[in-house]
Design a protein that fits this description.
Layout lengths: L4 E4 L1 E5 L3 E7 L11 E10 L4 E6 L2 E16 L4 E5 L3 E5 L4 E7 L4 E10 L10 E5 L3 E5 L3 E7 L11 E8 L3 E6 L5 E8 L1 E4 L2 E4 L2 E6 L3 E6 L3 E8 L8 E2 L2 E2 L1
Antiparallel strand pairs: 1-19, 2-3, 3-4, 4-10, 5-9, 6-7, 6-8, 6-9, 6-10, 8-11, 12-13, 13-14, 14-21, 15-20, 16-19, 16-21, 17-18, 22-23
Length: about 240
């Protein structure tokens, strides 16, 4: 993997009493990673929440790692997903929603903002969800779950592949990646090694247009590989609006 960059997430408060680890944009990496606008690992314990707020101009993907999360919006959706589940919405021209922990009282997950093509910035908002993501490998080496991509019923307006991978101790994985994509590998738990570089928990390695990544683990590790087709368009992030 040539021309990659390692960044550490930055912990901060968001919403009403929630905590996030922000991967980008941050002080150390103050820009987006086309087509991705923002990425947070979030931790929300009741009564903390994200009260009603408005979004425009992008699609949000919320993938649950632990606990449960409730999404409610002005389209009439009121839905809860548990660990392994997925919620997405196209904010389009405007959506107003709120998020809070469900019955478990705790939410731990990843929220990713994916930019919309300019001609869809004024589209009608929509909502989708999956109760459970698809396991495509489960053996002595580890487990791979497919969150987004080909043959997944949730569709985005921008092409995105998304894998949740657990690699057991002292293993190696060579994962193919769409060579036309930009993306990242984010470590949720443990640590991994890529080309002699150690990537620790809460850190990500950003890449552009590679064909594969070879990942090694000395300890059990959980990480995400997310990539998307770049839109090559300028953006302006204005609070919760992406223009």
């Amino acid at each position: 993997m040539k021309n990659f960059k390692i960044i550490e997430s930055k912990e901060m408060g968001e919403g009403q009493g929630a905590t996030v680890k922000r991967i980008f944009p941050s002080k150390d990496y103050p820009k987006h990673h086309d087509p991705f606008v923002l990425m947070d690992e979030f931790f929300v314990k009741s009564p903390a929440s994200f009260p009603k707020h408005e979004h425009r101009g992008f699609e949000a993907v919320t993938y649950m790692l632990e606990g449960s999360f409730v999404h409610e919006d002005n389209l009439g959706n009121n839905s809860e997903v548990n660990a392994g589940g997925l919620q997405t919405f196209n904010a389009g021209k405007s959506i107003i929603h709120s998020e809070k922990p469900g019955e478990t009282g705790f939410s731990h997950g990843i929220q990713l903002w994916v930019n919309l093509p300019n001609d869809l910035k004024n589209s009608e908002p929509t909502y989708q969800q999956l109760k459970e993501t698809k396991v495509i490998k489960d053996d002595d080496e580890g487990k791979i779950k497919k969150v987004l991509g080909k043959n997944i019923s949730v569709d985005l307006n921008t092409e995105v592949d998304y894998l949740d991978i657990t690699l057991n101790k002292n293993n190696e994985l060579k994962q193919k990646i769409n060579k036309n994509h930009h993306g990242l590998i984010y470590v949720v738990k443990g640590s991994i090694k890529i080309e002699e570089k150690n990537i620790k928990e809460g850190s990500a390695i950003l890449f552009e247009k590679i064909e594969a990544a070879t990942i090694k683990s000395k300890e059990k590790a959980r990480f995400l590989i997310i990539s998307g087709k770049p839109l090559n368009q300028e953006i302006n992030i204005r609070g919760s609006f992406v223009e």
